[in-house]
Write a structure and sequence with these properties.
Elements (H helix, E strand, L loop, with lengths): L2 H26 L16 H16 L25 H21 L8 E4 L2 E4 H27 L13 H9 L9 H8 L1
Antiparallel strand pairs: 1-2
Helix pairs in contact: 1-4, 1-6, 2-3, 2-4
């Protein structure tokens, strides 16, 4: 298999994994908790979702042919929470991710070195993907952290539970050595 195709398959799985992590965190909180901020300098889960949605639509709409910072994007408004319900929040969440995944599916392996622009700065397609693969987990981590704070001791771990590393590693090392993406097993657990 072509290295570029291996990369595209890998990043697809990575994005799916982080989407699933975010969804599992959102699922654990009560609807009203989605709108809680801890102080005036923090964002609610709803606001983080709105920002991810705005970024995804801007970056991934016609991303091979237009600048990733679209003229119609109002980034500052993404941080003003006007989402009213969990249903509206999830609609935006899914719309953003659908835009991303549709764009990823449109990439041919030989396009990874093509130059695209974000705010007039040239990136290879691969660099632009990597930029977003760093950006989205950063905010999903914030969503998870906020959800954990809101749920307190009722939190169901999304990764290796506290004091569970030895058991987790024992299970991993009890299996035959294989070549696969770490998300293959982790996504199954999250679904």
């Amino acid at each position: 298999m072509d290295n570029n195709q291996i990369y595209l398959d890998s990043i697809q799985k990575q994005f799916e994994y982080y989407k699933a992590l975010g969804e599992k965190a959102i699922d654990q909180v009560e609807a009203e908790q989605l709108f809680v901020t801890f102080n005036e300098d923090t964002n609610s889960i709803a606001t983080l979702v709105k920002h991810l949605w705005g970024n995804m639509l801007s970056r991934w709409t016609d991303f091979l042919t237009t600048d990733g910072e679209k003229a119609w994007r109002d980034r500052d408004a993404e941080f003003e929470n006007d989402i009213q319900t969990k249903e509206e929040l999830m609609q935006k969440w899914n719309e953003g991710w659908d835009c991303l995944f549709n764009a990823l599916h449109s990439i041919e392996p030989d396009q990874l070195s093509q130059i695209i622009y974000i705010r007039n700065e040239g990136h290879t397609v691969m660099e632009a993907i990597n930029r977003q693969l760093a950006h989205y987990p950063y905010h999903i981590g914030q969503i998870i952290y906020a959800a954990k704070l809101l749920k307190k001791e009722e939190w169901n771990s999304l990764s290796v539970p506290r004091n569970g590393s030895q058991k987790y590693n024992s299970e991993k090392f009890s299996k035959k050595r294989s070549i696969k993406n770490f998300t293959d097993d982790e996504l199954k657990k999250l679904k």
